[in-house]
Amino acid sequence: MFIQNSKPFRLLRKIAGFRKELRILFVPLPALTIPAMLFFFTSHSFAQKKQIDSLTRLISTEKIDSNKIKLTNELAWVYYQDKQSEKAQKIAFENIERAKKLNWNKGIANSYETLADFYYNSSQFDSSTYYLSQALSFYRKTNDYPQICYTLGYLGGQFREINKFAESKKYLVEAYDLAVKINSYKYQKQSLDRLGWLYHNMGNNQLAIDYFEKALDLVRKKGSKRDEIDIKNSIANTLIALGKYGEAQKLFFEMATYLRRQNDLKHYAYNLSVGANLYRRLNQNEKAEKPLLEVYQIQKDLKDDWSLLTTARYLGMLYTEQKRFVEAEKYLNETLYLAQKFNNSSDKAKAYYTLERLYFAKNDFKEGDKYQKLIIRFRDSLYTADQNKALAEFDVKYKTTEKERLLAQSNLENAQKQNWIVGLSIGLISLIGFGFLFYRIRETKQRGILQEIEIEKQREILKAKEIERQRIAKELHDSVGSQLTVVSTSLDNAFFLAENQRLVPQKLESINKDVREAAQSLRDTIWATHNSAISITNLYSRIQHYLSKITEDNHNLQIVSNRLGNDYELNSIQALNIFRVFQEAIQNIQKHAEATQINIGLSFEQGQLGLSIGDNGRGFDKGKLSINENFGLSNMKNRSDEIGANFSVDSEVGKGTTVTLALPLT
């Protein structure tokens, strides 16, 4: 990553600020502000275009190759910030080749680091660590030890973010040892702090404290009071993880007192807020309200909405526990508003969770269930199949084949050069020499072509494996994951109800039912993924087995099923998605239709598999509810689309509903 006073870094900070301004602007505003918003966006885009033009002119007139590479890296950054990521990547790759031709190791490393930064800022950490490792290998050749130390720490921090703890420790320890060797206080402190957070993430909080204490000793000898505050924050947060709330609170209040004297109200408010919230953990709720309200007012005055979000949540939870529900609802609704304003996933989830707890505490189970469902749907929405697929293709393309492709190309070029030298040497002797030369060149080319074919074959195999891995992960996430989320949330509610002596056996039976459904869902996934091919007969048997469980639990429900046509082998993806559509349809009938009869048909005729599930329930008005507006129907439509099947729903109020899936098979 670029150093903090570099032009690219300043540009990145500006664009980050611009994004924040846009988030603020896009809350509901009067119509008169829309022209102002359009002017702001247009003027910013114009400024970026102007910057691109300026850098392009500078690059075209620059005579020194190393300066041209530096300017081109800056241009790549501007394109990246302008959402032209493909062009930015292309420029960075070209810069790598340009620097290699100059044999300029620092330029090669800087260009790789530019790519690493692109992917880091897009939260694509696997790709980022790959290119950062490439940058490090070239930085090592420069003997620029501070830069090497920085890159080692950066790489160690990235591996920690993707939970590759062994690799993270390796680089962080090397960064620390090098920092000691070159007597760099800055990188010693940074490495010790990162090692502490590494062990914190691993759950070894006592060892994390040891590293933070070592960093604290260092800053007390060589650093500033502000450095000491940073390390104490790390220690205090780890003490919370250890359950040492009193010790953590003492540290937060100590830091708050110092920052108040420095008139640093923003950081004073943060430390006071966290410390005051710990009163709840210490069963001293009556002491928490006054400091939290003080913090709330400071953050309001500073217009620090980001910090206000957390403080409002603390107040909402406090008032929920004190059964002051009107005040709790006020602050928790403000929390949700701010989380949506910043579009922050973690804070949205926390807001939903605290609102769920509030309404269950009020015995408003309808609203409580509403937020419970929002939690489940929100967590499901975090899985983005397209992003994972793109990342998988990118990683396969650049991680597993780039080196092999370049090596094959290099071997081919070297062999050709050698053959030309030999050919010129013996060409004067006889025509046989030319024939031999032709043979060797042809043989070398053939080897190169075969090697390229083998590399491409391996790339496709790896790509297929990665896509299959992503598919299995998605299936587990969508089925077992969401069901276990329901179980987890239900257990949270059960504990809460038990604490308030309102837990009833029916609640435990509901949780037990959810666990059984999750286990069955896991067995269904294993059934499909274990078999590369599943016959329609096998699928129908699975459907029959599922229906037998339904009729055991509901004797008043009549189910008629039949199968027509020939047998056919489906692949595991087709079979599992068809079975999930069937399951979703049956569950929708059980929950909403109030039906007494279900008719199910599975057929394979004229090259097409058909599945229909009909009921005699209450139905619905198709004109008032589209497929995309209903979570269950949308889920069935998505699964049908995934295997290339046509999906339709026919329903009429009072006359039931029929769901149909048609899959062409050749």
Folded structure, characterized:
This protein is an alpha+beta fold. It contains 25 helices and seven strands. Strands 2-4-5-7-6 form a five-stranded mixed beta sheet, with helices on one face. The protein has a two-stranded antiparallel sheet with strand order 1-3. A hairpin with a 5-residue loop joins strand 6 and strand 7. Helix 8 runs antiparallel to helix 9 and helix 16 runs antiparallel to helix 17. The relative contact order is 0.03. The N terminus is likely disordered.
Features:
two-stranded antiparallel ribbon; 666 residues; alpha+beta; 25 helices; disordered N terminus; single chain; globular; 7% strand
Mean pLDDT: 77
Distance between the termini: 52 Å
| Major β-sheet annotation | 5 strands, mixed
Q: Total number of helical segments?
A: 25
Spans where pLDDT lies below 50 across 5 or more residues: 1-44, 383-408
Q: What is the approximate shape?
A: globular
Strand neighbour order, sheet with most strands: 2-4-5-7-6
Structural class: alpha+beta
Strand tally, please? 7
Q: What's the gyration radius in Å?
A: 31 Å
**Helix fraction bin:** over 70%
| Strand residue content | 5-15%
